[in-house]
């Protein structure tokens, strides 16, 4: 079959340039022109001199204000900031915790139950108090980065360690030795925590998620179902839904956030999608500038009557126009999109797609050029679906061995990766290659409710992932309380008396989260903690949701071990930093100058 292509070459503009006839200047006119130029230069010099003089403004460095702790006032103000932040965040803790309403400069106010989101919004007027709030905010932020949940517990635990530590330091204890005792005790308690932990069963994943989502078992069951469908190491993502109900769907194959380059490739006008089955895939790790380079590939596609998907760094207008024209004529089944990612990550994605489809990536580094390529470099996909925002490629299963090998290579990269973001992206690549991504769509009646629900579901998802990583322990603050009973044995191993005082600080602070959970449920926290410790059963505790004392593990009140560990470590770190502080330096805010009537800044309309 003879094949012809319509070439969309750019039209060249006429090149004839007209030259204007110029009349020679007289001597007088030349002198006049020189005088005018000289005058302009001198005027310009004077203007520049005036401008330089006007710019010679004296620059003063911002003054600093120093607060010393000679009378304990600096630490008290820092602690006041800690308490204000912790008291605000603390109202969200537990199954009967309340929400916090945050003012929004744009749009409706936000109603949240997420500790770190609340903490990020706090800015105190007193500069010293604000520094105290920022210090303890670090515990929440770090816990959120590593575990994705437990941010409120981190803040409350840090508040307890600081409160107990300030008391003994004010009484004359050495803060250096105190903090050393806190550090040693925390390290030993983390080891004890790992002994208390157990591996999470599939049936317990829903309970972990439900507890983190504020006892929302619908969310818990949905997250557990998502993990069962894509595997424990699979990727589960969140989206804002269009309806009031939550929903779950699994995207089979490899999906990425890149849609078709041109809507003229669409095959289903109603859904505005491109859908092809048994499609060939061409991968190009550079920009396609000339349609002639594609002639071999496209002629083979027409002869073989098969569709072709082109994935390249970009396609310039002339080459794209050629593809579109031949697609509209019906002579060619084709679609094109830009490669996902940028730089090195783009090349990695192309390599992943190549392994999934059996294609060869065309790149200059390996000596393979597009104009010399033929159908041998094409991969094969069982199905492709392209929208304006995303693309999905489903492999035909013929490259399973290569995919398994590639997944193993990426797992090795995860082990040596240092950044959490890098680990997330590598895990995503594994999920895309392995065959699916679960997507939970969070629904709500209003935008305000949607934001709050999405934060809860995000916490629940992160808690479930953390449980898979390091196991689970009894929840409800009871594990931290049980750890306090291990402190006396740790104290016996400490040689210094003041280090033992540091251990006692940790022991007393470990009861703070449980007491606050009980307080938010309307009961006396001290009474609850005493009753829990009176039992030798490590699974026994207080269920704040029902008000009952029972086997919490059987009741589904479970916390991920990783979350509890991060709370303990980060709260301890912040408390040590706080107790070692003895002076605060803040910027002196200069008062804004008043705007006088009639000045250029006066927009009232009454300046004369």
Written description of the protein model:
Keywords: ATP-binding, Chaperone, Coiled coil, Nucleotide-binding. Residues 400-427 form a coiled coil. GO terms for molecular function: ATP binding; ATP-dependent protein folding chaperone. InterPro entries: Chaperonin_Cpn60_CS, Cpn60/GroEL, Cpn60/GroEL/TCP-1, GroEL-like_apical_dom_sf, GROEL-like_equatorial_sf, TCP-1-like_intermed_sf. This is RuBisCO large subunit-binding protein subunit beta, chloroplastic. With 608 residues, the chain is α+β, with helices and mostly antiparallel strands. The chain folds into three domains: 73-198 and 474-586, GroEL-like equatorial domain (GROEL, domain 1); 202-248 and 439-470, TCP-1-like chaperonin intermediate domain (GROEL, domain 2, 2-Layer Sandwich); 255-398, 3-Layer(bba) Sandwich (GroEL). The chain has 21 helices and 17 strands. The chain has helices at 27-55, 73-90, 115-120, 127-146, 151-170, 175-196, 202-212, 217-230, 295-304, 317-328, 343-357, 400-416, 420-434, 447-470, 478-484, 487-491, 497-509, 512-520, 525-533, 552-555, 561-579; strands spanning 64-68, 100-102, 110-112, 235-240, 247-252, 254-256, 274-288, 308-315, 334-338, 379-386, 391-395, 436-442, 472-474, 540-543, 548-551, 558-560, 583-587. The strands form six sheets. The protein has a six-stranded mixed β-sheet, with helices on both faces. A three-stranded mixed β-sheet has the order 4-12-5. A hairpin with a 4-residue loop joins β14 and β15. The radius of gyration is 33 Å and the shape is elongated.
């Amino acid at each position: 079959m003879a094949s012809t292509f319509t070439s969309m070459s750019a039209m060249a503009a006429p090149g004839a340039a007209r030259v204007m006839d110029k009349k020679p200047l007289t001597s007088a006119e030349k002198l006049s022109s020189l005088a005018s130029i000289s005058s302009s230069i001198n005027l310009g010099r004077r203007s520049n001199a005036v401008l330089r003089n006007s710019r010679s403004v004296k620059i003063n460095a911002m003054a600093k204000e120093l607060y010393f702790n000679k009378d304990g006032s600096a630490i008290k103000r820092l602690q006041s900031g800690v308490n204000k932040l912790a008291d605000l965040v603390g109202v969200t803790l537990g199954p009967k915790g309340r929400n916090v309403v945050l003012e929004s400069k744009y749009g409706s106010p936000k109603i949240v139950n997420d500790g770190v989101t609340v903490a990020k919004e706090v800015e105190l007027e007193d500069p010293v108090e604000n520094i105290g709030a920022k210090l303890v905010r670090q515990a929440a932020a770090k816990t959120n980065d590593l575990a994705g949940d437990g941010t409120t517990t981190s803040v409350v635990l840090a508040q307890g360690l600081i409160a107990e530590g300030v008391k003994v330091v004010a009484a004359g204890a050495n803060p250096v030795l105190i903090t050393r005792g806190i550090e040693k005790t925390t390290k030993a308690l983390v080891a004890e925590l790992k002994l208390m932990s157990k591996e999470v069963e599939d049936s317990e994943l829903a309970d972990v998620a439900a507890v983190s989502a504020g006892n929302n078992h619908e969310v818990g069951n949905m997250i557990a179902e998502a993990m069962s469908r894509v595997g424990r190491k699979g990727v589960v993502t969140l989206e804002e839904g269009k309806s009031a109900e939550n929903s779950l769907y699994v995207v089979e194959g490899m999906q990425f956030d890149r849609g078709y380059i041109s809507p003229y490739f669409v095959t289903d006008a109603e859904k505005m999608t491109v859908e092809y089955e048994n499609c060939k895939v061409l991968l190009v790790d550079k920009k396609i500038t000339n349609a002639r380079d594609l002639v071999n590939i496209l002629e083979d596609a027409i002869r073989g009557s098969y569709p072709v998907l082109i994935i390249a760094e970009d396609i310039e207008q002339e080459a794209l126009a050629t593809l579109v024209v031949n697609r509209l004529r019906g002579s060619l089944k084709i679609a094109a999109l830009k490669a996902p990612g940028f730089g090195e990550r783009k090349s990695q994605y192309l390599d992943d797609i190549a392994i999934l489809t059996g294609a060869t990536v065309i790149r200059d580094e390996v000596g393979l050029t597009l104009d010399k390529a033929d159908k041998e470099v094409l991969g094969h996909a069982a199905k492709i679906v392209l929208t304006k925002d995303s693309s999905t490629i489903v492999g035909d299963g013929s490259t399973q061995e290569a995919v398994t090998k590639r997944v193993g290579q990426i797992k090795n990269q995860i082990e040596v990766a240092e950044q959490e973001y890098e680990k997330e992206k590598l895990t995503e690549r594994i999920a895309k290659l392995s065959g699916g991504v679960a997507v939970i769509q969070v629904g709500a009646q209003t935008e305000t409710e949607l934001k709050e629900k999405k934060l809860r579901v995000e916490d629940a998802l992160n808690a479930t992932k953390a449980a898979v990583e390091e196991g689970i322990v009894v929840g409800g603050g009871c594990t931290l309380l049980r750890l306090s009973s291990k402190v006396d044995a740790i104290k016996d191993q400490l040689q210094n008396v003041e280090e033992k005082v540091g251990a006692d600080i940790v022991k007393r602070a470990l009861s703070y989260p449980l007491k606050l959970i009980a307080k938010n449920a309307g009961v006396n926290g001290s009474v609850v903690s005493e009753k829990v410790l009176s039992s030798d059963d490590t699974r026994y505790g207080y269920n704040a949701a029902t008000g009952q004392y029972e086997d919490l593990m059987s009741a589904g009140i479970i916390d991920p071990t990783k979350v509890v560990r991060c709370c303990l470590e980060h709260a301890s770190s912040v408390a040590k930093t706080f107790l070692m502080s003895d002076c605060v330096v803040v910027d002196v805010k200069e008062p804004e100058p008043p705007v006088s009537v009639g000045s250029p800044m006066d927009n009232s309309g009454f300046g004369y």
